[in-house]
Amino acid sequence: MSSASSSLLAWVWEAQTARYVNLALLSTYIWDWLLSLSDEFTAIQRCRSWSTILAYLLSRTGVVGSIFINFMIPIAPIEHCNSIFHLGTVLGAVASGATSFLFLYRIRAVYGRSMVITAVFGALWLAVAISGAAFVFLTSGTISPGPRRQCIVNKLRPESMFVLWVKGAYDTAVFVAISHRMASISRAKCASTTSPWSCARGKGLSQLCRDVLQDGQLYYFASVGTTLFAAIAIMLPINVGWRMIFSESGFPLDSSMACRVFRRVLLAPKNEEPEPGTSSPVLMTTFMNEPGYLYDDHEMCRDDSPAHATL
Predict the structure, then answer these.
(1) Which segment, 152-156, 186-190, 249-253, is predicted with the most confidence on average?
(2) Structure confidence by residue, pLDDT tens digits, 121-146
(3) C-alpha–C-alpha distance, residues 244 and 153, integer Å
(4) pLDDT at position 273, please?
(5) Rounded to whole angstroms, how far apart are CA atoms 102 and 98?
(6) CB under 8 Å, gap of 24 or more: what pairs does 290-293 form?
(7) pLDDT for 58 beyond 80
(8) What is the pLDDT of residues 13-50, one digit of tens each?
(9) Residues sharing a CB contact under 8 Å with residue 89, sequence separation 6 or more, in sequence order
(10) Pseudo-torsion of CA 165, 153, 18, 161, nearest 10°?
(11) Pairing of strands 151-156, 139-143
(12) Is 175 left (phi over 0), alpha (psi -120 to 50) or beta?
């Protein structure tokens, strides 16, 4: 078999594998979305911030649009190959920025709308958004060789790994800041016989505050795992198409888990109280105003005592 024929077969196999992977990602993500539609409608109705609602919807629709375009690229009109490919990367960048924006609101809530925290993490989020936009120019599509002409990935520059490191740094900073805030309060409430692990998991806080802490921990470890995997995949000495397939596989998971954390916070009932003999003196402004529920425009974690600690 000639080298040209071998190259053509490799392109065909790569394109088919990419379609199967994207079909699996798209099906799984849409299934997850359909299962949570009822909760999403309720959460959106209770959310009073249009920017947060917009970020949530952009995270959802951006992922679906990006994966769908990647799935359709092999059968796209070849005269618009690169334009269609860039549209997919733009939607992916929008979804990534929107997902990170949800956690910007989360950390502002945890720290009571602190101006310092808002400025620092707002700048970090802006870096995520800018690096995501730069990713569009670090990739491109082209037409495959041979008689079976179709759109394929042509370029994935090593510099695109920088985009993933920026996102990983942002996720890490959010994780450390929220965990430190929650765990420090938990340690103050823990008995001397309580293990450090229990304190780190939020013992002594209300159920809601433990959910805020533990959901953030779960999201972070899943997100950092997929980010590291994608960053390593970009540097592997394999064909650019395979590197693209591996690097995008964790993209829907980040969005799905971030949206789940967002919904869980907004749907928490008011009757969730701290453990007996404990309290949660954390005042966290947030973006919801629903009478009869735990969250309103002024507080996130209720405290039975009259005193609240605010940063």
Answers:
(1) 249-253
(2) 999 999 999 998 888 887 777 666 66
(3) 8
(4) 47
(5) 7
(6) 290/46, 293/46, 293/268, 293/269
(7) yes
(8) 776 777 888 889 999 999 999 999 999 998 888 887 88
(9) 66, 135, 136, 139
(10) -10
(11) antiparallel
(12) alpha
Helix extents (H) in 236-286: 240-248, 251-266
**Residue 269 backbone dihedrals phi, psi, to 5 degrees:** -75, 160
In the DSSP assignment, the letter for residue 73 is G
Residue 284 CA to residue 28 CA, distance in Å, equals 34
Structure-block tokens of residue 97: 């920025």
**CATH number at 11-268:** 1.20.1070
261: nearest Cα among 138, 135, 139, 99: 99
**15: its two tokens:** 């394109």
CA angle (310 as vertex; 191, 277 as ends), nearest 5: 30
- The answer to whether 54 and 97 are in contact (CB under 8 A) is no
Length in residues, the chain: 311
Place of tokens 């947060």: 52
What residue spans define the domains of the chain? 11-268
* Amino acid at site 305: S
d(CA 124, CA 177): 13
Amino acid identity of 277?
G
Rounded Cα–Cα distance for residues 139 and 162 (Å)? 13
Report the distance separating Cα 194 and Cα 210, nearest Å: 16
Taken in order 14, 20, 26, 29, is the CA torsion positive or negative? negative
* Dist. CA 213–CA 204, nearest whole Å: 12
CA distance 140 to 163: 16
- pTM listed for this prediction: 0.79
